[in-house]
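Exercise: predict the structure of this protein bound to S-adenosyl-L-homocysteine.
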Amino acid sequence: MRVARVSARGAARWSRGHPWIYKSDVIGAPGPEPGAVRVVDARGRFLGVALWSPNSTISLRKLTGEDRLIDEAFWEERIEAAMRYRNAVVAGTSAYRLVHAEADGLPSLIVDVYGDILVTQFLSAGIEVFRAQIVEVLRRRFAPSGILARNDVPVREHEGLPRTVEILWGRVPDVVEVSEGAVRYLAGLNNGQKTGAFLDQRENRLRAGELARGRVLDCFAYHGSFALHLARGAERVVAVDSSAEALARAKDNVALNGLENVELVEANAFDFLREQEEAGAVYDLVVLDPPAFAKQRTAIESALRGYKEINLRAMRILAPGGYLCTFSCSYHVNTVLFREMLESAAADAGRPLRWIEWRGQAADHPVIVQIPETGYLKGAILQAL
Ligand code: SAH
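Solution:
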């Protein structure tokens, strides 16, 4: 195996439990080809084995502290461990995340399950080298009818990799029907967002569904995944999204579940919320699940202004006793900033609100304490008094 030599600062990151070593901490590069390399410190002491990405700013991603070969058996062990954890935390759904990259000791690898289809993402040059081995393990272990690679993500460009969508094994339909608690929905595997659905919100959708009654508003509804759960307890659900395409799928999902109390509205949620407030509308529950407003650190300020605006308006249109289920999937807007934003919105809302609970990403998207990048979704449920 080739060798990468790293600085004391690089070695210190690993000893604190974070698997990444940046380019500036690589003092002896293993050469231009990506793959698995042995990592040693400045004095030549063995530190572990890592994925090497020659073009990335994240040069090394730790695989193991053992001096061992990275072969099919290695991937199988890690995927088995990921599966054992999912068996413990996932129930009542046929769509879930099997592998959450660094959080499962499988850096830069995503594997999502949609019924008998697996959807993967190979997010670094290093992991890409092992694609065939990983596909072989997945095929043998899960006997899926198809394995898709949704490698059409921008991060691949930083790795010098092409953006593509490819079938890696078997047959993959454009759309699959999956179940989530009491509802069913269609996931667009080839062109839906992420790998086909926002699996990270599954537990929050179920929770919001439990609280739903009366008149309910679902903002940033996408395929209606929250709305489907809300409609079971609510009299009427209004689901708002700016994308006609997303709403077309939402319409199919509403029909699939035989629901007749969901109204789909194509609108900018910022405008819609303002108009509802001006019109004096009242809702018993509002869901806010916007896209990431802060994709970069530099966008935090403006993102917080956006979050505050929609949260403030949602707080104002709640009926007494009404719930606000509010989320942010911006990694850079951390839980502290999110909480401060809600406090600031509540201060302007002119009415008392009660914290009901804090929410995060579903348990099949585990967050490792030492690797903050594994967590990005945060949310809260508040109740208007
Ligand atoms: N709640 C969904 C995921 C929402 S993703 C689920 O659980 O599956 C964010 C959605 O916001 C996308 O569908 C996108 O089309 C929509 N969107 C983005 N900007 C918007 C805006 N200004 N107004 C309304 N919808 C918007």
